[in-house]
Design goal:
alpha/beta, about 20% strand, transmembrane helix, globular, nine-stranded mixed β-sheet, Glycosyl transferase family 2, Spore Coat Polysaccharide Biosynthesis Protein SpsA, Chain A
């Protein structure tokens, strides 16, 4: 059997129904490109792995402990046979031509290291997180504190225009396996959130562009896995919800210390870290009050 062009990696944790819908959509269009599908399961307790073995025998399944997004995705790398790797969220639904067009775009643009498509939310609006700037101190401050999002989300560029970006989202992240091997895949020091931005940063450092390519799209049921969508039948334990929300702030500190610390005066960097820790306290209180 010839090696596939594309390896699709889907990380799953207690999202059985979402995953089933995602896999059915992938199956519908998987003849667009020669591919294999790998599901990496983070110790789900909702019967997800058994469901995959029973209903989707064509899927490669690997299981392990719930050690976060980075380790969960990296767990699948030894099973990858494709030249390209697509990281795909289980809370997504694939549509026609998304595999065909994004793979073709990456093949035709040798200076591009990773590409994403348009992600459309249930309300029909674009998922803004699909195209972002790197979280420098000013960008982060204006986005998180001042709520000035235009620059962070590239809102001055039409959402139907193909353009270069700093960072794309891990929900649909297509790249070459050789690039992942070069930059070390996901940084496993991140538990949840931030690892996709960090991977984008490493791909940039390796000399490649990242591109938002909206000529095709998928649907993203965003927020379900974090327990943010009340109408969806997906329960998230309050402790798990708190863990995920605080992990996002920890990722901010990890990214700054790893990638930006030496770009600024030492005193300023300590001030930034203090600001991140204060933001973590605020988020903790907010999650407690809303849980």
């Amino acid at each position: 059997m010839n090696k596939p062009k594309l390896s699709v990696i889907i990380l799953n944790y207690n999202t059985k129904e979402l995953l089933a819908d995602c896999l059915r959509s992938v199956k519908t269009y998987m003849d667009e490109v020669s591919m294999e599908v790998i599901v990496s399961d983070n110790a789900s307790t909702d019967g997800g792995p058994d469901m995959i073995r029973k209903n989707f025998p064509w899927v490669k399944l690997t299981e392990g402990p719930n050690s976060g997004f980075s380790k969960g995705n990296n767990r699948a790398k030894n099973l990858v046979n494709g030249e390209m790797v697509l990281f795909l969220n289980p809370d997504t639904v694939v549509h026609k031509d998304v595999f065909l067009k994004t793979v073709r775009y990456l093949e035709e643009h040798t200076d591009v290291g990773a590409v994403t498509c348009k992600l459309v939310l249930q309300n029909g609006k674009i998922d803004k997180d699909i195209r972002r700037r790197f979280p420098t101190p000013w960008i982060s401050f204006s986005h998180l504190i001042l709520k000035m999002n235009k620059e962070y989300y590239y809102e001055s560029i039409p959402e139907n225009a193909t353009h270069e970006v700093d960072a794309i989202q891990g929900a649909f992240f297509l790249t070459w396996k050789k690039i992942l091997d070069k930059v070390g895949w996901f940084d496993e020091e991140y538990f949840f959130d931030g690892e996709d931005i960090d991977l984008c940063y490493q791909i940039h450092k390796a000399g490649y562009k990242l591109v938002y390519y909206p000529d095709t799209y998928i649907t993203h049921l965003k927020g379900v896995t974090k327990g943010k969508v009340k109408k969806w039948n997906h329960k998230v334990d309050p402790k798990q919800k708190m863990k995920l929300r605080l992990a996002g702030v920890a990722s901010m500190e990890r990214f700054y210390r790893k990638n930006l610390w030496n770009n600024y005066p030492l005193l300023f960097s300590y001030f930034v870290i203090l600001g991140i820790k204060l933001f973590k306290v605020v988020r903790f209180i907010k999650v407690r009050l809303t849980s």
